């Protein structure tokens, strides 16, 4: 019997945003070689004026991380450990991390104890004065803006919890137990229908949106991709275990009240329980998670490994800063009477 290889795809799963993402998408889909990818990554970084908002760089990072997650079926699993693609990712991650550390205001470091770290994290998140996307959705947003909000959130939330789960094998003892307790809830506590990503997929369907993962990558701006890429970078790099823990702590501590407002706003706009269920679920769940994340996870990690304290606080501050940029992008676009999407026609 003669075996023939399937023909490579003729179209890219996402629309490229520059020469680097074009080459990487072809390589990841098996339609091209990875040769030269590292050189293109270096060129993209050299040409970028703002790595955090650069479309070509952020889409490239998103695609490289998607290969590691296995979240895009069209990507060839054999390319996950391609040395040239790993080198390209490293060349993008280094300036991305430098840019984030230059952007994020670093809070004062508390004592490396459970109680001091938890108190510092609660103070940091309580003082966050970023734009209130949740209040806008609760009181002022139109139905179209609410659907745009769901599209923007889908880039992370249809894979909710996965970036933070990379930390599980990197932690030990008390911190590991606390993280597993939080993640077990995120993954439905043994009930597939209550996996948070699945509940959000139901919300997408209820709002007459595509519930497939990454279905709206072409529609969202670089800053939305940046938010997930930051989580992914923190998660997949063992040296940044403190940062992903701090990120999760801040993420949980700033979730309960906003999700109540999101649910209220969606009800105000006439969406049904299939859409609001995800947000209602997080009002109660995250009120519990914030306590575990602050004291038993982040606080215990800092107490057991004081050398990670600075990254724990950096990760928390980075969560607030970058999510604030995403929220500001949406609100500023809506205040101008414009769509927050790169391709607003997806809502037609």
How would you summarize what this structure contains?
This protein is mainly α and 348 residues long.
Reading off the top of the CATH hierarchy, the class of the largest domain is best stated as Mainly Alpha
CATH homologous superfamily identity of the largest domain:
Heme oxygenase-like
* C-alpha Rg (nearest Å): 20 Å
Query: What percent of residues are in strands?
Result: under 5%
Question: Under the CATH scheme, which architecture of the largest domain would be assigned?
Answer: Up-down Bundle
Reading the helices and strands in chain order gives HHHHHHHHHHHHHHH
Query: What portion of residues is helical?
Result: 55-70%
Let me know the average pLDDT.
Answer: 94
Unreliably modeled segments: 1-8
Shape: globular
Compute the number of strand runs: 0
End-to-end gap: 49 Å
The number of distinct helices, counting runs of at least 4 residues, comes to 15
Largest sheet: none
Domain count, please report it. 2
Q: Indicate the structural class.
A: mainly alpha
């Amino acid at each position: 019997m003669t075996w023939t290889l399937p023909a490579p795809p003729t179209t890219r799963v996402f629309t490229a945003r520059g020469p680097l993402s074009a080459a990487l998408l072809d390589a990841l889909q098996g339609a091209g070689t990875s040769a030269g990818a590292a050189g293109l990554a270096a060129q993209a970084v050299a040409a970028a004026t703002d790595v955090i908002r650069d479309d070509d760089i952020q889409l490239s990072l998103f695609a490289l991380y998607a290969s590691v997650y296995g979240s895009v079926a069209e990507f060839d699993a054999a390319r996950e450990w391609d040395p040239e693609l790993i080198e390209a990712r490293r060349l993008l991650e280094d300036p991305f991390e430098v840019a984030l550390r230059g952007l994020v205001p670093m809070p004062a470091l508390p004592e490396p104890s459970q109680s001091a770290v938890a108190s510092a994290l609660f103070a940091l998140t309580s003082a966050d004065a970023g734009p209130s996307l949740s209040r806008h959705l609760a009181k002022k947003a139109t139905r179209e803006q609410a659907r745009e909000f769901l599209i923007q959130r889908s880039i992370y939330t249809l894979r909710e919890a996965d970036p933070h789960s990379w930390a599980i094998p990197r932690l030990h003892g008390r911190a590991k137990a606390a993280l597993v307790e939080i993640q077990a809830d995120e993954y439905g506590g043994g009930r597939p229908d209550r996996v948070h990503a699945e509940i959000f997929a139901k919300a997408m369907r209820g709002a007459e949106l595509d519930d497939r993962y990454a279905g709206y990558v072409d529609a969202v701006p670089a800053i939305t991709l940046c938010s997930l890429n930051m989580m992914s970078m923190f998660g997949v790099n063992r040296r940044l275990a403190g940062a992903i823990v701090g990120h999760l702590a801040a993420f949980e501590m700033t979730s309960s009240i906003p999700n109540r407002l999101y649910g209220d706003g969606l009800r105000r706009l006439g969406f049904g329980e299939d859409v609001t269920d995800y947000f209602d679920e997080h009002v109660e769940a995250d009120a519990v998670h914030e306590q575990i994340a602050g004291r038993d996870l982040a606080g215990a990690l800092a107490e057991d490994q004081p050398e990670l304290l600075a990254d724990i606080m950096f990760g928390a501050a980075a969560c607030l800063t970058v999510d604030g940029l995403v929220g500001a992008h949406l609100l500023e676009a809506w205040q101008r009477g414009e769509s927050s999407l790169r391709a607003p026609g997806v809502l037609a």
